[in-house]
Automatic annotation (TrEMBL), chain A:
Family, similarity comment: Belongs to the ABC transporter superfamily.
Record-given protein name: sn-glycerol-3-phosphate import ATP-binding protein UgpC
CDD domains (UniProt xref): ABC_MalK_N
Gene: ugpC_5
EC numbers: 3.6.3.20
InterPro entries named among the record's database cross-references: AAA+_ATPase, ABC_transporter-like_ATP-bd, ABC_transporter-like_CS, ABC_transpr_MalK-like, ABC_transpr_MalK/UgpC-like, Mo/tungstate-bd_C_term_dom, NA-bd_OB-fold, P-loop_NTPase
Automatic annotation (TrEMBL), chain B:
Organism: Roseinatronobacter ekhonensis
Any one cellular-component term (Gene Ontology): plasma membrane
Gene3D superfamilies from the UniProt entry: MetI-like (1.10.3720.10)
Keywords assigned by UniProt, alphabetized: Cell membrane, Membrane, Transmembrane, Transmembrane helix, Transport
Identification of the protein by name: Trehalose transport system permease protein SugA
GO biological processes: transmembrane transport
UniProt-listed InterPro entries: ABC_transporter_permease (IPR051393), MetI-like (IPR000515), MetI-like_sf (IPR035906)
Pfam families the record matches: BPD_transp_1
The organism's taxonomic lineage, starting at the top: Bacteria, Pseudomonadati, Pseudomonadota, Alphaproteobacteria, Rhodobacterales
Gene label: sugA_2
Domain ABC transmembrane type-1 stretches: 69-278
Keyword ATP-binding tagged: no
Topology in membrane: Multi-pass membrane protein
Transmembrane segments: 12-37, 73-94, 106-123, 158-179, 200-224, 230-248, 260-282
Subcellular location, principal: membrane
Automatic annotation (TrEMBL), chain C:
Gene for this chain: sugB_3
Lineage: Bacteria, Pseudomonadati, Pseudomonadota, Alphaproteobacteria, Rhodobacterales
Location(s) in or outside the cell: Cell membrane
Swiss-Prot/TrEMBL keywords: Cell membrane, Membrane, Transmembrane, Transmembrane helix, Transport
Residues passing through the membrane, by range: 12-33, 71-96, 108-131, 143-163, 184-209, 240-261
Chief location bin: membrane
Pfam families in the record: BPD_transp_1
Domain ABC transmembrane type-1, chain residue ranges per copy: 72-262
Database matches in PROSITE patterns: ABC_TM1
Coiled coil: none
Protein name listed in UniProt: Trehalose transport system permease protein SugB
Organism: Roseinatronobacter ekhonensis
Length: 334, 288, 276
């Protein structure tokens, strides 16, 4: 079981309030991702849940019972750190066994669990090595192994993939998702990378300066961002945000249109523009187009290869159903 | 890493060290200050009552005081100059490419590990003895009259012994500092046309200045309380009575505790003046 | 500097450095050699360098006459005891300051350092008096305590600088893994800090071994360590060069060997981390 409830929790470092009062419920078995720019308080929030920091106010409940003052060792949560935080002086086996040893588990049971975990994580051949003799991906797996053997109520991940190279990152992302499907245990995952959030989460929590901007499934956030911040943060490439005359036509302060929701034509459309740099990815092409009457260049995404050159004049047309409207305060207009 | 629980655990775990050191500092210090205001002569009946500032005045106005200050300053100053100058040169030499660098390093560092009583005795007898010492042999070999080092040139002799003991310390620290100098900086200076001498004065020396300051401060603190070297060589005779030694004599030899304690307070003040500068540097280093 | 040094240049450096090194080392070497001479050969003119009749006689005489073993044992007990005791007090303190720093941590560290700078002679009589009152004069226990106290700031400082290099994450991971504070320090921090702890112990042992103010003033017979043993040679006996040399060699050899192992850490320990 792993239902975690945060009730008006706050965190101050000295006089600086990093987390203003915040409410959040994480259901048992959910994969929740905290996402937001660097320094917004994601790690702090995670550490509050872990018990590595005291809350300045509010209450944390795990499976209904008050855990606010419970020390980290007693919360039944497991954590995977960005730096992996493996014990350098212990073999992989000892690393994974450490939480079991601390719990006073019998050696036979320890062995059984370690073997099972090593099997799942492809670590069987490395059990007698030291962390220093492993690659980044393997270390990551050991850290995860150390977390799963305890069968915790929930897993906490703090940017676990940010020290891996791009290819490994994609692989580990899948492995963690698979692990979640298999274990069905609550996972709370912190990242600044919205791609990780979109691909892994059941529920995304978008944070800015300690405040929750929006909570929802990846597609909810994609389809209906609650405000300009979420609109700009979720989706890649970023949503185009347009002020001025083009927005006035839609009776709002700002309109947003995603690059993939703009169609391109050589003859006609709503906006006429000049092509700047284009990025050819093979599967897709991104254009940066400077349009008449629109301040910032727009990003446009077109499937496959398109024959458009630097300096060409083209016409853009936003999909009418896919325009997001925002008011003075940056809030979405339904 | 900072929950209330861990903070109170931290306070608890720091307590033994803090309490012990606090006791070690405050109890004897308070007693010294108390004694310094008493007329306290254990051999003549113990505590003979309050003395006001008498002890302080008497300690300063005694004929031994100013010579002891002078001796202390000469000793500390000469050793500092010798160890810093030769230490710098030696550090630069040891930093050069050579064969057997590790062994040379070991040879140079060795004196630091020799206990003060040993180095004082070995120098006193086997080198400085006017009849059988090596120096005497050397002098005679060149047809000169052997010198009675520890009576005729007592202070320079002690300076020499102490310098030998502390040169390794200065060299080791300065060598560490030299090795942390960015080679590219020197190459850039060379490209800019700086000669060797200029590179030394404009790049290497400024780079070493912090380490030199630290060497000076730390050595000063240790040198101010040099004891064993004098104890086993001259016993404070022949103008080698430093402030430390003078206080030692007042306290343990003539058992004038009040007077010795007043001297102790002076020594503490003197050491603290140096300590303040050292702590500034160390403290700054803590911030980053 | 990735430039080839001419071998001529290197040869000059080598010669110069070895010459200086040998001059500095010479007194120790000379003591060592003299310890194997007979008393007559020790004062022979001109001095004999290697061409003498090597003998172990002096070592025998010194051990027999002065009960060398007891002094050695006292040195080991005092240096070792104060090191272990100091470590027991300093490890928790250094843990606190390195991993749970507060606004006062820096002040406490500097204050600890300042106690190290208190001139011993300034508090000689009070300590002497306290020792008499407590029956600690000329006792090993008393000296162990004093050695521990005078070196405690250095131990705390060195451990602090080593601990600060250990990532907090790892200790937090241990905490998440269910480790109590005791387990965290015992099974995670200490093994990781072993190299630092070892060099701290080594330096402290050396400093305690060589300390020659308190050991000379607070001991007479029972607890006297090697520093006092050597000091007893300061008058007439010192004129027996060969025996003095044998005694000196025995007093410094163990520590010289330990010292060579600790030279790297020495800098950090003696400059309180200000030079690395
Ligand atoms: N121990 C601390 N003391 C003071 N400020 C802190 C501490 N830890 C984090 N902060 C501050 O809290 C804010 C949030 O930090 P963090 O949670 O690490 O952000 P994120 O993980 O989202 O990048 C930052 O502004 C950071 O400077
Ligand atoms: Mg973070």
């Amino acid at each position: 079981m792993g239902r975690i409830t945060l009730d008006k929790i706050t965190k101050k470092f000295g006089d600086v309030e990093v987390i203003p009062p915040l409410d959040l419920t994480i259901e048992d078995g959910e994969f929740v991702v905290f996402v937001g720019p660097s320094g917004c308080g994601k790690s702090t929030l995670l550490r509050l849940i872990a018990g590595l920091e005291d809350v300045s106010g509010g209450e944390i409940r795990i499976d209904g019972s008050d855990a606010t003052m419970v020390p980290p060792a007693k919360r039944g949560l497991a954590m995977v750190f960005q730096s992996y935080a493996l014990y350098p002086h212990m073999s992989v086996r000892k690393n994974i066994a450490f939480p079991l040893r601390m719990a006073g588990m019998s050696p036979a049971e320890q062995d059984r669990r370690i073997t099972a975990a090593a099997d799942v994580l492809n670590l069987t051949d490395y059990l007698d090595r030291r962390p220093g003799q492993l690659s980044g991906g393997q270390r990551q797996r050991v850290a995860i192994g150390r977390a799963i053997v305890r069968e915790p109520a929930a897993f906490l991940f703090d940017e676990p993939l940010s020290n891996l190279d791009a290819a490994l990152r994609v692989g580990m992302r899948l492995e963690i998702s698979e692990l979640h499907k298999r274990l069905q245990t609550t996972m709370i995952y912190v990242t600044h990378d919205q791609v990780e959030a979109m691909t892994m989460a059941d529920k995304i929590v978008v944070l800015r300066a300690g405040l929750i901007e929006q909570v929802g499934s990846p597609l909810e956030l994609y389809r209906a961002p609650r405000n300009l911040f979420v609109a700009g943060f979720i989706g890649s490439p970023k949503m185009n945000l347009i002020d001025g005359a083009a927005a006035d036509k839609h009776d709002c302060k700002t309109i947003g249109i995603r690059p993939e929701h703009i169609s391109v034509s050589p003859e006609s459309g709503d906006w006429k523009g000049t092509v700047g740099v284009s990025e050819h990815l093979g599967s897709d092409t991104f254009f940066h187009v400077t349009c008449e009457g629109i301040a910032a260049p727009l990003t446009v995404r077109v499937g496959g290869e398109v024959d458009v050159k630097y300096g060409d004049t083209i016409w853009l047309r936003p999909g009418p159903e896919q325009i997001h409207r925002f008011d003075q305060n940056g809030l979405r207009i339904a | 890493m900072a929950t209330k629980a861990s903070r109170s655990a931290a306070r608890l775990m720091m307590a033994p060290a803090v309490i012990l050191l606090l006791g070690w500092m405050l109890v004897p210090l308070t007693m010294t200050i108390w004694f310094s205001f008493r007329s306290y002569l254990p051999l003549r009946g113990g505590d003979l009552g309050a003395a006001g500032f008498d002890n302080y005045v008497r300690f300063i106005s005694s004929s031994a005081f100013w010579p002891s200050i002078q001796t202390t300053l000469i000793l500390v100053g000469s050793v500092l100059v010798i160890t810093v100058v030769f230490g710098t040169l030696l550090a630069l030499l040891l930093d050069q490419p050579m064969w057997g660098q590790g062994v040379v390093r070991i040879l140079v560092i060795a004196p630091f590990f020799v206990m003060p009583t040993v180095s004082a005795l070995v120098w006193k007898n086997m080198f400085m003895d006017p009849t059988n010492g090596l120096f005497a042999h050397l002098w005679r070999f060149f047809g000169a009259e052997p010198v009675s080092w520890l009576s005729d040139a007592s202070l320079p002799s002690i300076v020499m012994i102490v310098s030998w003991q502390w040169l390794p310390f200065a060299t080791l620290i300065l060598l560490t500092a030299v090795q942390s100098l960015d080679g590219e900086q020197l190459e850039a200076a060379e490209m800019d046309g700086a000669t060797k001498l200029k590179r030394f004065f404009f790049i290497i020396l400024p780079h070493l200045s912090r380490a030199i300051t630290i060497v000076i401060l730390i050595q000063t603190i240790f040198l101010l309380s040099i004891f064993a070297e004098i104890f086993v060589t001259t016993g404070g005779a022949f103008g080698t009575r430093t402030l430390t030694y003078l206080i030692f004599q007042r306290v343990l030899e003539s058992q004038n505790i009040g007077l010795g304690s007043a001297g102790g307070v002076y020594a503490i003040i003197l050491a603290n003046i140096v300590a303040i500068f050292l702590m500034r540097i160390v403290g700054k280093n803590l911030d980053n | 500097m990735a430039r080839d040094v001419t071998s001529r240049r290197k040869l000059i450096n080598t010669a110069a450095a070895w010459a200086v090194g040998l001059v500095i080392f010479f007194p120790i070497l000379w003591t060592f050699l003299t310890s194997f001479k007979s008393e007559a050969q020790a004062i022979a003119a001109p001095p004999l360098f290697l061409n003498f009749d090597w003998t172990l006689e002096n070592y025998g005489v010194v051990m027999e006459r002065s009960n060398y073993a007891r002094f050695l044992w006292n040195s080991i007990l005092i240096a070792g005891g104060s090191t272990i005791l100091g470590l027991l007090v300093a490890v928790p303190a250094a843990w606190s300051m390195a991993f749970v720093p507060s606004r006062r941590t820096k002040d406490i560290l500097l204050w600890m350092l300042s106690t190290k700078m208190l001139p011993a002679v300034g508090v000689l009589y009070p300590i002497y008096l306290l020792f008499i009152q407590l029956g600690l004069l000329d006792s090993r226990a008393g000296l162990i305590i004093v050695m521990m106290l005078i070196n405690l700031p250095i131990i705390v400082w060195m451990l602090y600088t080593y601990f600060r290099e250990i990532p907090v994450d790892i200790l937090e991971a241990a905490r998440m893994d269910g480790a109590s504070l005791k387990s965290e320090i015992l099974y995670v921090l200490t093994p990781m800090a072993i190299p630092g702890i070892a060099s701290t112990m080594l330096l402290n042992f050396i400093l305690a071994w060589n300390e020659a103010f308190w050991t000379l003033n607070l001991t007479s017979v029972d607890a006297a360590p090697l520093t006092a043993f050597i000091a007893s040679y300061s008058s007439p006996e010192g004129l027996f060069f060969a025996k003095l040399s044998a005694a000196s060699t025995m007093a410094i050899a163990p520590i010289l060997i330990l010292g060579w192992f600790s030279q790297k850490q020495l800098v950090r320990g003696l400059t309180f981390g200000a030079v690395k």
